[in-house]
Amino acid sequence: MITLAAATSIAACGGGEDVHVLKVNGQVLGISASGQRVCLDTNANGRCDQGEPSTLASESGEFSLQGPQADLLLEISATAPKSPLPAAATPSVVLRAPWQEPGVISFHSTSIKAVMETQGVDFAAARQQVAATLGVQPRDLSREFNQSGDEEVRTELARAAEDGLARIKRALAGIRSSAEIIAAVNEAARVDRHYQTKTMYRPQGDWKAHEAPPAGYEPVYTQLVARHGSRGLSSMKSDLAVYNMWLQAQADGGLTPLGEQLGPDLLKYMKAHFLLGYGIPGITKPGYGNETQVGMREHRQLASRMLQRLTTHWQAVEKQGSRKIVVASSGKGRAVDSAGFFVEGIKTARPGLVSALNSPVAEVDRFALYFHKLDASSDPTNAPGRAQVLSDSQGYRHYLKKDAELRAALAQLKQAPEIKAAARVVLRRLFKDEFVDRLERHGYSFTNSGTLTFSSDDGAFTSTLTGNQKASIESAVDAAHAIYDLYAIAPALRNEIAVDFIPYMPASQAAVFAGLNDAVNFYKKGPGIAEKGKVTFAMAQLLADDFFAEVDAIAKGDYRHAAKLRFAHAETVIPLVSLLQLKGMSDQQPLSTLYSYAGNSWRGEVVSPMASNMQWDVYQNSAGRLIVKLLFNEKEADFKTECDRAKLSGTQSFYDFQGLKACYAKP
């Protein structure tokens, strides 16, 4: 690895003014830049102009520059320039690097600069955001990732760079003047893509930096509930409806050049879903709704970090030989599969724990882990607490289908002017104005009707599906929202399909539809309307009680369980968060005002990204006292405000278990 250095010094000019001088010895990473132009973009126009300090990168991408303090720029042209002098033609690739860290030019440095400019944040904040989005450490963004010893980091950074460079090439190919270069590159390099509850999982905390337990306390138990990992669409709905709309636009001659590509990409997208999970051990039935390879890794890695975080606990469990790791799921396919992949992660990292697992057959607990869809005819209530959960579940389903105030709120959100404006921007990039106008006048209607067949490349598996006509597009907003749904799920399929949906959904418009999605999920699954009480989350009570009961068993000297691992859905995790009133994630909205980002801190990407999870680590001292640390998406978190008095004196993250029980009125 080449050591990269940059220094900023202050030199006195003849006029007596101090000028910042940038001296840079750097390297271009992630793309071949031999003989390509690197400059200090002193006028910040995205071009290496006459008079700006510039040079040509070496065969290995190295360069040296000195000049006024300015961001660095790399221009890659179809033919390498003969000298550092600027060329007139628009380059095929432009990469940027902030002057605060100019030693590396890469797609990732370009992303940092894009975040700085589009969000108005400083270098440190932008760097942290890019790193968090990619699931790496900030320092990893400044390294030659192809030489990283961490396979996960290497794979993630290389994939993001490859995808991003392709987007930049497409963006620059479509611009009409050099004045558009900065905007085009920033749009292609942005990481704030607004996937909300479809966001791929990234741990929000580093276990190595967590607060250590007080002296004398050792880990004795842990438990979690986790959403399934990243998945494809649950069924053939919006994808087929959008494809039918595209076919009509094609017949009308109503497609733009970008729109022409949407149809072929949709066919690739649907084929990937038809075959999703084919040939993958642990997936029993290929097709829609399955976890992607991204989702499988999310749970394997989640397991690995849990084992590393509590090493002494697992060593003790292996030595004792009698304690059990209980694995439970909702019984639904992707939750069952997630349990399997998590267990696989345990077996790989610590084979000594295999005998402690109750797998391969995980327990199925619908009342604790699938409470949002209980059925009175098939879900028996012959155990304590179940009758109440069934009643709460039925009340919740009635609320979703019949509550007039809920329906009015959702309708009002959908008709907001900003939603209609964003829809038009999205659609006009794909369809000609006449077609968009007709959609806006409700002159067209499309559903997920029709039958499609796809076969695996080896010909050994064929799937035929027919749409149920229940997904409809009846307006421009419906059309754009359906495209957003496809866009949001696409990153999870990156190993199954080489289709990038980012060009179809600009970040600014994605933010608008993300807000709409969050609003809908807030009202339907989240804290909801204050005047409706606990209708959206009362049914999570049995699950919350089970968390307390597991720790109570340890308090009473019952150490049979070393851990309990539960695998479920967003509709499980979100209500539990609301019920426990976790800080910043559970505030309800009064009927007098609509949910908005300005007025409510609830965010889908925070509360329930893919594989979102809640974990309780339990520690005990020699006197038998138990303390609990709450982790939410692997970040140290707080229970409800009223429980602050239960925090262990002198700590930030540990709660006295008996005080916690009293706070939640547990006997």
TrEMBL record:
It is an enzyme of class 3 (hydrolase). InterPro entries: His_Pase_clade-2 (IPR000560), His_PPase_superfam (IPR029033). Pfam families: His_Phos_2. It is found in: Membrane. It comes from the Bacteria. Keywords: Hydrolase, Membrane, Signal. SUPFAM superfamilies: Phosphoglycerate mutase-like. The keyword Iron-sulfur does not apply. It catalyses: 1D-myo-inositol 1,2,5,6-tetrakisphosphate + H2O = 1D-myo-inositol 1,2,6-trisphosphate + phosphate; 1D-myo-inositol 1,2,4,5,6-pentakisphosphate + H2O = 1D-myo-inositol 1,2,5,6-tetrakisphosphate + phosphate; (2R)-2,3-bisphosphoglycerate + H2O = (2R)-2-phosphoglycerate + phosphate; 1D-myo-inositol hexakisphosphate + H2O = 1D-myo-inositol 1,2,4,5,6-pentakisphosphate + phosphate. Its EC number is 3.1.3.62, 3.1.3.80. Belongs to the histidine acid phosphatase family. MINPP1 subfamily. This is Multiple inositol polyphosphate phosphatase 1. It comes from Acidovorax bellezanensis.
